[in-house]
């Protein structure tokens, strides 16, 4: 028998008096976050919201949920939840109490399907979501100004990606609740805990309920922190319902317990923390209300439950699809409420109950006319033998062979009968698997021997798959020298190749590029699992041939003779610049290195065999040298010819005064005599050229004593013979007062023309100085200018 202290838990309940007509009185609830499991970051978000059942509650159809980062409260996402299920009435064990207190509560379910990006939700501190609403019940006795106090549903969850890996997690799950009351000075306990779908550890503690941000009817998603409700004096999270003991929760099981010593409606909250491997990964808050009433001293009824037509027992078993009738003691003064697995069943308030679902059943009774103690019957357990099973086939009947294994639900207390096309198939009765090799319509009958339950599976049609046709396709059946031949297997989804009767284990693709002659077959497996082997496909090797082409001699310039081309074997084709038929003309080809080919087509499947030669038409070199170079005694200089035709060898003669006669640029060192140098060059083809240069050596400059700058075209400037040999020469001319009237600044590139700043100087004698080199002695003399 259940303890007599089961009285009065109203969770998520509001007092009927002192309530404004338009208020949507929040009774309680929580948020749940379920991983759907198909795509990382795909979740179903559910808000379970318990409301006082009135017109205003009917207008509540959802709202906004915000997701925020715990570290800095940054907003990540805002989405809307809408109603996803039919509202369910919270069933009270003692309807007389519910009626007398004008209590009607419904459970509303709001939800949304969301997709979160794991790469975006990777902060180690985790995230939280909240759903905010308003209007608690004005009759709440443990918080300040309850009617103007809001409600925040709150859930924390971990990062979706840790160390580059997706972190799978769902929040805890909670069962529906019964509508009950607490009786003053009566011990009360309630299974308030949940379960975790990931097997994580859950830890429970009492906390202060959360208010909402802001005031008024604003229900927009806003970030935390969220304010606590304001306790009245003497109340706290751990003293939400005064008593001996006060309301408390077991940290491991979530079991609530209290022996209240004060009447009233009391709000409280429980924090459910989620731990994995000793590390907290999330939490959810559940916010509720208990109503404590003064239960009259009524003697509790003592009901008994039995099954109609069966001997007294507490354990019953029926076959699926059958019904068992439970009944209890009949008393016209009693109020009845049936339960399954501790949860009140809607509309189950009679003395008889038809049951067909497995579970633990009991009935709670109380006096119809008084809100007093309710007491429960003994528990009756119902088991349902469910033989529901579909035929599960594996294998395939192929065109001429193959088999299929049919299996159904197994069990040591089951027997089986197998049928093909309505006829019994001989098979041991204990075998739940049948292997068949013939097509037909199969079914099985399962029988549970102890209770005589039977089940007929649906019929399953087994047919033969179409014959598999294995074929090898190829554009040809011969392999060209040095090439491969692709063979394509057709007719299946997987392939096994053989060459000359031996498996080729390394090739499982539909295309096999063969490089060796032989006989090939392919075994193909169709999607049905059926196999077939192709007809042999013979591949031959085409022998290689050797193609040669005689070399073409190089020529200098384009005026060489026409050359006859030859190659083996005969019958091929010549091609390339300057080629016409079997003739090669360097003039037509032009200067350059030309690739000439000889191609022989030896098999229609294969590309031509080709030999090639390079025909060189080399340019004839040219040498550009000055006719004469002037220098001074003992000077070093470089003779740099301008060359064309790509010469590669150089020979200067005579080698006198040359640092290296084989260099392209001749380096003349400390020359003392006039020289005539000859340069001979040759390119890689052997084409040659020759050039000469005269080097004149001056020991000093010849200085004339007079000149006539009279614009007659003769001796109009003071010409210094051999001055070119002295590029650093300094020439200065003075008048009779010692003033400089001319000075060279660039050697003697601009000779003295008898003017000073463009004005002719008077005729007469002028003194000059000449310094050949910076370190040479100064030469002095007199110059006569005549006009």
Provide structural commentary:
This is T9SS type B sorting domain-containing protein. Pfam families: CHU_C. It comes from Larkinella humicola. InterPro entries: Ig-like_fold, T9SS_type_B. Keywords: Signal. The protein is mainly beta and 787 residues long. It folds into seven domains: 26-293, no CATH class; 305-385, Immunoglobulins (Immunoglobulin-like, Sandwich), CATH 2.60.40; 392-462, Immunoglobulins (Immunoglobulin-like, Sandwich), CATH 2.60.40.10; 471-541, Immunoglobulins (Immunoglobulin-like, Sandwich), CATH 2.60.40.10; 548-618; 622-698, Immunoglobulins (Immunoglobulin-like, Sandwich), CATH 2.60.40.10; 706-785, Immunoglobulin-like, CATH 2.60.40. The protein contains three helices and 68 strands. Strands 1, 2, 3, 4, 5, 6, 7, 8, 9, 12, 14, 17 and 18 form a 13-stranded mixed sheet that branches.
Helix/strand layout:
Blueprint: E1 8-10, E2 26-35, E3 42-52, H1 55-58, E4 62-69, E5 75-83, E6 88-89, H2 95-100, E7 105-115, E8 127-133, E9 151-157, E10 161-162, E11 165-166, E12 179-183, E13 188-191, E14 201-207, E15 248-249, E16 255-258, E17 264-276, E18 279-293, E19 305-307, E20 315-319, E21 324-328, E22 334-340, E23 343-344, E24 352-355, E25 359-367, E26 375-376, E27 380-385, E28 392-397, E29 402-407, E30 414-420, E31 423-425, E32 433-436, E33 440-448, E34 453-456, E35 460-462, E36 471-473, E37 478-479, E38 485-490, E39 494-499, E40 502-504, E41 511-514, E42 518-525, E43 531-533, E44 537-541, E45 548-549, E46 555-556, E47 563-564, E48 567-568, E49 573-575, E50 579-580, E51 583-584, H3 586-589, E52 592-600, E53 609-618, E54 622-624, E55 628-632, E56 635-639, E57 642-644, E58 647-653, E59 666-671, E60 675-683, E61 688-698, E62 706-707, E63 730-734, E64 740-743, E65 755-756, E66 759-760, E67 764-771, E68 778-785
Parallel strand pairs: 12-18, 20-27, 37-44, 46-53, 55-61, 62-68
Antiparallel strand pairs: 1-12, 2-3, 3-7, 4-5, 4-8, 5-7, 6-7, 8-9, 9-18, 10-11, 13-16, 14-17, 15-16, 17-18, 19-21, 21-24, 22-23, 22-25, 25-26, 25-27, 28-29, 29-32, 30-31, 30-33, 33-34, 33-35, 36-38, 38-41, 39-40, 39-42, 42-43, 42-44, 45-48, 47-51, 49-52, 50-51, 52-53, 54-57, 56-59, 58-60, ...
